[in-house]
Amino acid sequence: MHDTTLSTVAAAIIDILEQGLPQDDAVVHFIASTHGDLPDTALAALVADGDDPQAASLLELLLFPGPAAALALEDVLGQAGLKASDLPALARAVMAGAPRAVARLPGGSRIPLPLSPESVRRLIDRLAPHRNLPAGLRARLETHLPSEARELAVAARQIGPDWTPAAAAFAQTLFDKLPPGAADTAQAAQLVRFALRFLADLPAGSLPLPALFARRNQLAAQLRRAAQQEEALAKSNYETLILSGNRLPYLHAPDIARELGHADAIIRAITGRPAPEGGASCQDLGVFAGLEELLSVFGDPAE
Question: Is the pLDDT of residue 75 over 60?
Fold first, then answer.
């Protein structure tokens, strides 16, 4: 990697730190619920107090790069093409060039943040500048989902699939099946996010499509179990079922159904046909007088 590339990425990160890492309302709510309604000066003093054990966790929270910071840095990180071996040098460059850092709260308050080599290294690790979406996949997203491409590139960086040839080919096929300028971009983006999470959880050496079939059937089984559990609870109650030896795992049917729908849509997009049903099924074959008549239904195995 050229020193100029390293300097460019370091400068972009330093600029974010000095302008202020954007914080959202969830961070403000956490601070208020944990530390009370502190004025800015008291909050800054707490963050700067290295002897207070609460300061370390608060500093971790405020130095965490949220969605706004990740989006702001995505273009420069994507163009740099850093590798994991470049990260220590990048952390040193940021530490050397960042005289101060600031957390920018939604109301406009600016809270100074002390920096250390360890906190900067954690910040770099969380930005994951080495986990780039392959250029070909990024180009396809920009063609098919231009309004969502940067956010999906950020999602790919943060979720972190291992872009093996099989994973890249799977994603490429899916992205190519998305119609250019798709009208329902939100639905298409949800499919891409599901695919990214699925690929990130894929065991090493597994082929994506067979694994997706297996995941789809697992979701279908969970949805059936959720329906059975809901029916059982409607006829009884949780305590009675537990005392009767029933195991009632947490199964939220709407979430399962949504994930199952995503898996089905991806399988249909990639293969051009619905997913095969992998669960047990039954079919009424009628009434037969004897074994020979029954076996005749299944045909001659020699044919």
Answer: yes
